[in-house]
Write a structure and sequence with these properties.
This protein is α+β, with helices and mostly antiparallel strands and 128 residues long. It is built from 3 helices and 5 strands.
């Protein structure tokens, strides 16, 4: 996914959707890892006092190569040839990592953000 405008729209919608679940002093920093092929990896770090900021890394050959450069414990070994479809969620410490394996517009829409948020947020009584 190399469409920075679409990536930024997704990040903005995700931030807007999750903000009502966060305490006022919690910031959300995003790191976007685009792929030259299909998809991108989105890291969202939540922590007290951090700035709401977005960072873009250089596009990698594949999602597997990007995943090797991210500190995570969900996948190991030789990841160069791993492939993903849809949205895969990794929750680690204070981070939400979304591995989005396709460039289809439906995977990056506001509706996709809503579905992805349902996968990571409490379903009842979680709002501040």
């Amino acid at each position: 996914m190399k469409d920075k405008k679409l990536l930024q729209s997704y990040v903005n919608n995700f931030r807007r959707g999750i903000s009502s679940y966060l305490k006022p002093n919690i910031g959300l920093r995003s790191i976007v890892h685009p792929s030259e092929g299909e998809g991108a990896i989105l890291e969202f770090e939540l922590a007290p006092g951090i700035e709401n900021d977005d960072e873009y890394t250089a596009a990698t050959q594949s999602l597997g190569v990007a995943l090797q450069g991210i500190e995570q414990r969900a996948f190991g070994g030789h990841l160069e040839n791993i492939s993903f479809k849809g949205t895969n969620v990794i929750l680690e410490n204070n981070r939400i990592i979304l591995v989005k394996g396709e460039d289809l517009a439906a995977e990056w829409s506001e509706e996709a953000v809503a579905k992805d948020l349902l996968r990571v947020l409490p379903q009842e009584g979680g709002r501040k």
